[in-house]
Structure formats: structure tokens, C-alpha cells
Specification:
By secondary structure, this protein is mainly β. The protein is built from no helices and 20 strands. The chain has a 5-stranded antiparallel beta sheet, with no helix packed on it. Strand 4 and strand 5 form a beta hairpin. The N and C termini lie far apart (49 Å).
């Protein structure tokens, strides 16, 4: 899978690392001695004849040196920032492959100050690994900027490999021709009429932008 990836520990017993793996097999190298296991995503590494079968993806790998127990889990990705409750307040995204993360119905709030809506993605509720960007409502991580979010409710998609993100408010209309759509009278104080020359109108939503 990944070759030569160094794991870190805080207590000399439990080691961790988050890394992107290609599909393949691996073992743990303990001071030159290799041990592996037969199962994924969890198991016990106790034999140098076994190799752990790991699918492609990004994982947080945990290995207990004292017991040989190991696990492969998708890293935790969250959104934090002034626009979503404050810096250090995390809203977690979900994933099925450890690469593309999503959350629906994310509420972004803001006051008059543009900085009051800025947000970022981060890993494991810590600032060791984080992603931002200058683009809105979509962009790519640039490693520098906070994302200049706009107040609203969004369905969010984020790719931790490419750093691409998008915030969909559900209001954009693809392939829409205003020539086929009429609203009258305009202005009005009481009633609006909506007509369409070529498309069936199933619903109308009026938004103050």
C-alpha cells in the first residue's frame, strides 16, 4: 500500500498515522521486524507471514505495539469557523470512501463583517491538517486563505485528495432560459403570474438575495 510511512506515538505504545494508500497489502515494521495480519479493517498483527489486504483510500491507521492490534479508519473531517458556530467548533462530514466527504443542510451565518462567515475544513478536530481557499461557492485548497462563505444553507462536498470543495444552495438552475419564462405584472403589490413557454412549472421559490 504505502511504503515507508512513519507512525507517531504519544505514549510509546499506541502509534497512529493518516495516509493515502493504493490498493495492496502491507505489514508493520517494528525496528526491522515485519508483522502483518489476515484481516481488514481491524485485526492483530502477530505473524511475519501474513499481509494485511488494504483497499485504496485515505485512512487513519492505529497500531498498538503492546498487543499487536491494528485498525484502519477513515479520517474525521469537519468544518469550523466564524460562520458555523466559531473557530474550534466542529461540524463533522460523512464519507463512504475516505476521499469524498459530504454534509447536507449546513447553515452558514454571518453579520455585516465578511470575516464573520469565514470557514475551513480540518482533520481530526485539530489544526495539524486543514484546508481553505479563496473561491466561493466552489474552489480548491490553496493552503493560505479561509473560505469566504456567504450566509445560507448548503449541501457541501469536499475531496481531501484534490482539496476541491463546493457549497450548493440548491437555488442555481442549469440550462435555464429566461426567454421562456415570464412573471407579471412587475412591479406588483398583490399578485404575480408565472408562465412558461416550454417547461412545466412544478414549484416556485421566491428568494430575497
Amino acid at each position: 500500500a504505502a511504503e515507508g510511512t512513519t507512525m507517531v506515538t504519544g505514549d510509546g505504545s499506541v502509534y497512529k498515522v493518516t495516509s493515502t494508500f493504493t490498493a495492496g497489502t502491507l505489514q508493520f515494521d517494528i525496528d526491522g521486524a515485519l508483522v502483518g495480519g489476515a484481516t481488514y479493517p481491524t485485526g492483530n498483527a502477530g505473524s511475519d507471514a501474513e499481509f494485511i489486504p488494504v483497499p485504496a483510500g485515505t485512512y487513519t491507521v492505529t497500531f498498538d505495539l503492546s498487543t499487536g492490534d491494528y485498525s484502519f479508519a477513515f479520517p474525521l473531517i469537519s468544518i469550523t469557523g466564524a460562520g458555523v458556530g466559531g473557530w474550534g467548533v466542529d461540524t463533522d462530514l460523512t464519507t463512504v470512501d475516505g476521499v469524498t466527504y459530504t454534509i447536507n443542510g449546513l447553515v452558514v451565518a454571518a453579520s455585516g463583517d465578511p470575516a464573520s462567515s469565514e470557514i475551513k475544513f480540518r482533520q481530526d478536530h485539530a489544526w495539524t491538517v486543514s484546508w481553505g481557499g479563496a473561491g466561493w461557492p466552489a474552489g480548491t485548497n490553496d493552503g493560505v486563505n479561509n473560505i469566504p462563505a456567504v450566509a445560507g444553507t448548503y449541501n457541501v462536498t469536499f475531496n481531501i485528495i484534490t482539496g476541491e470543495y463546493s457549497f450548493d444552495d440548491g437555488l442555481s438552475t442549469k440550462g435555464f432560459s429566461s426567454a421562456n419564462f415570464k412573471v407579471y405584472p412587475n412591479p406588483t403589490q398583490n399578485v404575480w403570474n408565472f408562465t412558461s413557454a416550454s417547461e412545466r412549472i412544478e414549484s416556485v421559490k421566491i428568494v430575497d438575495v
